[in-house]
Structure prediction request, 280 residues.
Amino acid sequence: MARVPLPDGRSIAVEDRGNPAGRPVVFLHSAPGSRLIDPDPWATAGARIRLVTFDRPGYGSSSPLDGGVAPSVAGFADDAAAVIHHLALGPVSVVGWSAGGVVALALAERHPDVVQRVAVVCGPAHEDDVSRLDEDAKFMVDALRYDVPGAADRVAEVLSPIAHDAAAVLDMLAAGPPDDAVLEDPVQGPRLRLMASEAIRQGVAGIAFDIVATSVAPWDFDARRVAAPVTLWYGEEDVLVPPVHGAWWEGVVPNCTLNVVPGAGHLLPSVAWKQILASV
Prediction:
């Protein structure tokens, strides 16, 4: 693990794996998630890439946001750009999974000089355009919008029962038979459990920050201005972020292609990593 210092005094925990001389690919983890994820090391090795992953604020070993700082997708994108610049990666391909997909698009829009191509994997549309929350969650989101800077603390309180429960963290990412099969797989399951355990190293702060940034706070980037080619990937049987979200992005992002993988769920990177890498 390496640490990338940020101008505000925080630091980002980074894993740099794969072929050191290979083409760099930055993988932005899910919510919840952590830097400890390579969905398929065999496919990564076969693609001969340099895979860079890092923890967003409050996850794993990355610093949390300072108190009173409102989480934002743009802020997370700026952190990603800082990692890319610090490691002197040059223009990179970016893969963003789940909430990481939203951050990937913000990175491409705000920092077009560092992004060549983007793959969005199961990335949610804006809640106001394609809802995915139940009625209780919608009520909470609406209430939190009156105090975005304080919203993360309130979300963390709600999530506190799972602060040390990696299985419950994975339940936030997996639903339905295709995802159950991935978690039961003797190879894929342990990888995802490792990612989930690291995600809550500091508790649930990182999850709370992501929820506020993607579902509560206004999105502070314009996906219509993304210039890089974008490939959208969704699981046909994803019940958490179904393909209708991909169709929404297809109507917003200028230069993109939508792919729906038959029989797959939200844990799509674990079953289609080779194809996803080929698209970037």
The chain has one domain: 2-279. The mean pLDDT is 93.
